[in-house]
Design brief:
Helices cover about 85% and strands about 0% of the residues. It is mainly α. The radius of gyration is 74 Å and the shape is rod-shaped.
């Protein structure tokens, strides 16, 4: 049931008719149903009627009028003047709506104030970020400018270093190279002269050895031709003297030629050093400004070449005394056997004539 008693139903129907929500036909239809206690049908009819009401009217009826009606607050005067009661309801509901609206407006104002505060904070933060971005851009431009200036200063510093290095090279290297080259040229000429002198001495000793060999051969031939009796000791003395003289002269010629070769080699080394020194000077004149210390050392490392001198090498040693004695012994045996062979052949042909003797050599 919509209401607690029939009396309330009658009052509600009477009120709806007074305010003009329903007409007499509807009232005549509802009253028999109330009289026969058909409350469900009455409720359905009332619900159908209320469906045609305005939403605000429904809200008033459901939330306010029903409660007042059940509580007995709707008196007879109000029932008689239903429009006045409805107006009172409208005013009351309007006040409630205004109160709720003011409360909503206050809440919205609070929210708007908070949003304004948030927006202000975001705006301030955006301004700070914009300033920071502008500052970063300025710093970046300053950094790029400083980088360009630093690079220019580095290039200028490098150019000044190269210019200073080139000035030092132009001021010191030519004089040093000229001085060393002059000394090397002097040594070259000195070694060349000494090589020529030793070469002449070697040719002289070699010529003397050849002359001594021919002289000894000629003297021995004369002695052998004039001798009536062969004397082995005299023959050995002649050949030993000749071999000794030729050997000494040959050894002297060998020493002279070896010394001349050494001086010639040293002269050639001086020329190579001059060439390396001049090449280093030319390199520094062209690339000296940008040359590093290691490059300079590599360029000039060959001018004063390391290595043993020709004079420090061991030359070929002349024949030793034992080798000469061994050679003479072999020569002696050969001559004796040859002389004996010639002597035997002559005796058979001349009837036993003794061989001529070699006179002693004064």
């Amino acid at each position: 049931m919509k209401f607690s008693s029939k009396h309330v139903y009658f009052e509600y129907i009477d009120f709806l008719m007074r305010v003009g929500y329903i007409n007499e036909e509807v009232v005549l239809e509802l009253l028999p149903l109330l009289g026969s206690d058909k409350m469900e049908e009455v409720d359905h009819l009332l619900d159908d009627l209320e469906q045609s009401f305005h939403s605000r009217q429904k809200d008033y009826l459901n939330n306010t009028f029903y409660k007042d009606l059940e509580a007995g607050e709707v008196d007879g005067a109000a029932m008689e003047g239903g429009h006045a009661y409805l107006y009172e309801l409208l005013v009351r509901q309007h006040k409630q709506e205004m109160t709720a609206l003011h409360q909503t407006i206050e809440e919205q104002n609070v929210r708007l104030a908070k949003k304004r505060q948030d927006i202000q904070q975001l705006t301030d933060r955006a301004q700070l970020l914009e300033k920071a971005a502008l500052r970063y851009k300025t710093l970046q431009e300053s950094s790029e400018t400083l980088g360009i200036e630093n690079e220019e200063l580095r290039k200028e510093n490098k150019e000044l270093k190269e210019l200073s290095q080139q000035k030092r090279i132009d001021g010191k290297i030519p004089g040093y190279v000229k001085e060393v080259s002059a000394k090397l040229d002097l040594d070259d000429k000195s070694f060349a002269k000494l090589a020529n002198k030793w070469s002449i001495a070697g040719f002289t000793a070699a010529s003397a050895a050849v002359f001594a060999a021919f002289f000894t051969f000629a003297e021995g031939s004369v002695l052998l031709a004039n001798a009536k009796v062969y004397d082995e000791i005299a023959l050995l003395y002649v050949f030993f003297r000749g071999v000794l003289g030729v050997g000494l002269l040959s050894w002297l010629a060998n020493v002279c030629f070896s010394t001349s070769r050494n001086y010639t080699h040293e002269s050639i080394r001086r020329k190579d050093r001059q060439h390396a020194l001049n090449f280093g000077r030319l390199y520094l004149q062209i690339y000296g400004a940008s040359a590093q210390k290691e490059e300079m050392l590599n360029v000039f490392k060959d001018w004063n070449m390391a290595g043993d001198s020709s004079f420090s090498k061991e030359g070929a040693a002349p024949p030793s005394m034992m080798e000469m004695i061994d050679g003479l012994s072999k020569m002696k045996a050969g001559l004796i056997s040859k002389a004996r062979g010639n002597g035997g052949g002559g005796g058979s042909s001349s009837g036993g004539t003794p061989p001529p003797t070699v006179p002693p050599v004064p």
